[in-house]
Amino acid sequence: MIPVKDLISYTVIISGYGMHGFGKEAIAAFNEMTKAGIEPDSISFISILYACSHSGLVQEGWRFFDIMRNDYKIEPMLEHYACMVDLLARTGNLPKAYKFINMMPIEPDATVWGSLLCGCRIHHDVKLAEKVAEHVFELEPENTGYYILLANIYAEAEKWEEVKKLRERIGRQSLKKTPGCSWIEIKGKVNIFVAGGTSHPDAMKIESLVKKFRLRMKEDGYNPKMQYALINADEVEKEVALCGHSEKLAIAFRILNTPPGKTIRVTKNLRVCGDCHEMAKFISRTSRREIVLRDSNHFHHMKDGNCSCRGFW
Q: Is the pLDDT of residue 292 over 80?
């Protein structure tokens, strides 16, 4: 227990709740702070807006944004605007987010536009993604991540010619892609997995276990989300690619090498795809294990087939 909570400790608590998808708990901590007579600053408002965006709490987010400006007379910075765009984009309010950006009194940066681009991927809006991407590319022409994000949006929409053009553009500009990977620690040793990797000593056992989970999911009526395979191939090849995603391999390896009921903790350097997210939830239910999956955006706490993110990540 912290003997005396001050602004810094409350802000850290609010931020921590936000990262783990516990938006309501973050709001409770914020309210406790103000009731204790501690006045929030611009950083604590970033933390609470972030928490709202990662829990899909649209009305609450707007309320805090208005309180910040009207009650505490704090002028929003780019970080506050980015949180609001992220909140609108994650919850599917893409036109509102686009309008919000265009009405900003300060010039939006790549982070603001990038938040909307991420929302376009979540909600499969290719047309708006193309428009938004041009702003991002102009502001950060050497940031490979945004090019890859747009390429993935095209791939999920099966616009393979556009994917090809974008990859050629990446090549012409000599941009380097960060390969996706997941890692897990067992007995003090870190095991790293990449998509489709077969070099691990337990590769065949891992692949077999992932396939068993996939089969059980199908028997439960689940249809694989083929758009996340991100390859131009037939359905069989796409499913093989999906089963080889690094987070699935890491989770399977953990199950093979730890006692039943042991919590599974996996870290991934990129955003977890929708298909892997669904499989991880399924595994948490059928194996009766809690899974904590940390991706580039969020901590996902999965238990009994549910995730703390509730679909907002």
A: yes
Which amino acid is it at 191?
N
- CB neighbours of 308 closer than 8 A, spacing ≥ 6? 20, 21, 22, 299, 300, 301, 302
Q: CB–CB of 184/253 below 8 Å?
A: yes
Q: Sheet holding 181-186: strands in order across?
A: 189-194, 181-186, 264-268, 291-294, 299-303, 306-307
CA distance 273 to 278: 9
Q: Closest Cα to residue 28, out of 42, 40, 2, 10? A: 10
User: What is the rounded distance in angstroms from the CA atom of residue 152 to the CA atom of residue 233?
Assistant: 15
**Rounded distance, CA 193 to CA 246, Å?**
5
Q: Measured between alpha carbons, how far is 87 from 310 in angstroms, rounded to an integer?
A: 14
Is residue 34's pLDDT more than 80? yes
Give the list of residues 6+ apart from residue 183 with CB closer than 8 angstroms, or none: 190, 191, 192, 193, 250, 266, 267
Given a cut of 90, whether residue 243 has pLDDT beyond it is: no
User: Residue 11 CB: number of other CB atoms within 10 A?
Assistant: 22
